[in-house]
Amino acid sequence: MAAGFAQLLRAEWVKFRTVRGWVVGMIVAGLLTAGVGLLGHSECGSQVGAVAVVGGPGCTSSLGPGGEAVTDNFYFVHRPMGNTGSITVRVTSMTGSYSPNGGSASDVRPGLQPWSKAGIIIKASATPGSAYAAMMVAAGHGVRMQYDYAGDVAGLPGAVSATSPRWLRLTRDGGTITGYDSLDGAHWTQVGSVRLAGLPAVADAGLFAASPGYTAPASQSIGSGSASTTPSQATAAFDHVTVRGAWPAGAWTGTAVGGGSGPYPVLGYRQAGGELVVTGSGDIAPVVDPGAGSVATPLVGAFAGLIAIVIVGAMFITAEYRRGLIRVTLAASPRRGRLLAAKAIVIGAAAFAVSLPAVIVAQLVAEPMARSRGIFIFPVPAATDVRVVAGTAALLAVAAVLALALGTLLRRSAVAVTIVIAVIVLPYFFASPLAVLPAGVADWLLRVTPAAGFAIQQPYPAYPQVTGSYTPGNGYYPLAPWAGFAVLCAWTALALGLAVYLLRRRDA
Amino acid sequence: MTGPLTDALRAEWTKARTVASTGWLLLAAVVLTVAVGAAVSAAVSCPAGGCAEDPAKITLTGIYPGQAVVAIVGVLAVSSEYSAGMIRVTLAAMPRRIAVLAAKAVVLTGLVLTAGAVAVLASVLAGQTILPGHGIDPAHGYPSLSLGSPPVLRAAAGSVLYLVLIALLGLGIAAAVRDSAAAIGVVLGLLFVFPIVGATVGNAHAARFIQQIGPMTAGLAVQATTGLRGLPIGPWAGLGVLAAWAAAALLAGGLVLRLRDT
User: Fold this and answer.
1) What values do phi and psi take at B104, rounded to 5?
2) Which structural domain range is residue A410 located in?
3) Is residue A45 part of a domain?
């Protein structure tokens, strides 16, 4: 029984191995997968006089406590704070402005950005990337408690104004920071509590303001990839600033964390009477636009490899029909379901065995090349990188099996190949380089079609509290990585089941 | 009028006409083009106004999936003869191999021209009916979708020619590689890999160059009616790039057909 199946596997493997076109096709798939990813010649650098400088301040990123790339850019009005204590403020207004045309100081328009934020913060130090916890009002999102870049908890809803102010409080007890909010300063609600690793005995604490860049609405055209982002600023007014506990004596100091200011935005703070007004720009958040620095960028060659693999997968069965070999095959192995299972295992394993080294080589070669051109590669946990790399190879293997199943169903290789490529590549294409569909429709396509499988390549998590271009082109998918891969596998299982059914019922 | 080419044409026309799959595939191409174009037109929304939408491009979105079916028609015109062994009969009857390929190209052009014109006209009509209901009409500052306006006529006529050139590209590649699966794979690879790679390349110059040489990215520039300055390549020049790809494929196919045994 088992020996019979092993023999069947062996027979299919010999068929695959001895057809030169298929072996060449698989090798071509590997070369395309590895090679196309190396085509992108992005650079990062600046022009100093006549000399092009590779790398530099704009080509790197701070790393957060979790090792992820973060933006840590805001205006910080701070004092040293000891091991225990609290800070309480009342926020009475938050306003903002932005410069839509290249950040010129002469064209500034009023308005807050989504997730412009201001409030109180306790931070390990003013060094970008250090641990923190903050209570804030966020434009359009009410009161939030955020910590260590990725954490976000919602508090009181609604916008802040002089008639509807918000009270915010942070208390520190050793490494634990707890955030509270209140409408009247008398009745307090706990929003969240977090234990920060690496918070020194004397931290920096105080008030802050930040405002992420303004992004113009993108226009639709092929490859209109990255929209440009221009500066914005947010100004918040605080009063009833109260500190309790272990605060060494000292006055407030203003620091533009993560960089200074030009003609616009105009950063700073002023203190008058009991009021403190802080103006800041930037964001305290994970970076969600890795661009060419994504670990998934070298894997774009998988699209080209996919096409070659799909051709071989479909021909693995249609060639048998074309040559009449299928009758010999079925005479030798009358149990048709097991025959298709053997074919699926052989073609899937061959596709995986070719793709995995190709993807690994693409990444190993492309990353040092990108670094030498000044590009900062956004770090990912090792487990994520393994999932992205092995998942891409698995995606190609499953696509080969899907092509085999459709080839069995349709017996016409041209139609089978077109359908597989269309259902895997077209939805991705519609969602990303073309961007003609409304976002909701594109997302829907990437959830229900086999193209959902590309989610396995998403290297960085999406954050609802960070405005970003969460498109497949930037490496973000609407489904979670394994859920998307499961959708592809479900389609393949369905096609394979149907193929077995029809193979049994129809004459060969 | 009789002569070898006329006979070849008549033979190819009879083959195309009497094979059921040609008609079904062309019908599928028309239905897919019109249905997807209408669905995208119905899905477009611009509640705030001021979107940079191009009505002609939205209406003709169906060309993207439609071209895949048209490419199959082009590929099968040659490769089905190889898979059935018919090619040996064809070449025994008409030993002038280039004439056979030319006749196939002429018949294919006629068929796709007709089907493409139907698909594009129906798509434009659907767009004219659907888009004004979504606030995309001249009253809201968008260009008109009337075929009387020269840019719209260019987009419509250019899209029909685009489909013809895609079919010829498929024909040429199929004559060169002879296997239907490999041929359709090469065609779809040429069409879709360029824009996907172009979108991931960070360098703007390289991305623009990739879009200028890609058969689909360049060829579909002919659909643009607004924002022509922002295009990587002009409308007719872009269609010219695709024509060059199709010509190169036909040349390669002709050479292989002439030099190799069947």
Assistant:
1) -60, -40
2) 2-40+292-505
3) no
Cβ contact, residue pair A40, B203, below 8 Å: yes
Distance from CA of A319 to the nearest CA of B (A): 9
Predicted-complex ipTM score: 0.84
- What residues of chain B, 170 to 209, have a C-beta less than 8 Å from chain A? 179-185, 188-189, 192-193, 195-203, 206-207
Domain locations along chain B: 4-259
Check whether residue A339 and residue A264 sit in a common domain.
Answer: no
**A198 and A258 belong to one structural domain:** yes
Q: Which residue of A has its CA nearest to B225?
A: A221
Q: Is residue A243 part of a domain?
A: yes
Q: Do the chains contact at B181 and A414, CB–CB below 8 Å?
A: yes
Reference A296, options A487, A477, A37, A470; nearest CA is: A37
> Is residue A235 in a domain?
yes
Are A221 and B193 within 8 A, CB to CB?
no
Task: Write out pLDDT tens, residues A296-319.
Answer: 888 888 988 999 999 999 999 988
Would you give the DSSP letter of residue A432? I
Q: Which of A26-40, A425-439, B30-44, B89-103 has the lowest mean pLDDT?
A: A425-439
Q: Do A265 and A302 belong together in one domain?
A: no
The first and second tokens of residue A434, run together, are: 């073309």
Beta strands A275-280 and A109-110: pairing type?
unpaired
Identity of the residue in A41, A219, A422 whose CB atom sits nearest the CB atom of B52: A219
Residues of B in contact with A222 (CB under 8 A): 195, 198-199, 211, 217, 220
pTM as predicted: 0.86
In contact, B253 and B101? CB cutoff 8 Å: yes
Q: Helix, strand, or coil here: A74? A: strand
CATH of the domain at A219: 2.60.120.200
Tell me, yes or no, if B155 comes closer than 8 A to chain A by beta carbon: no
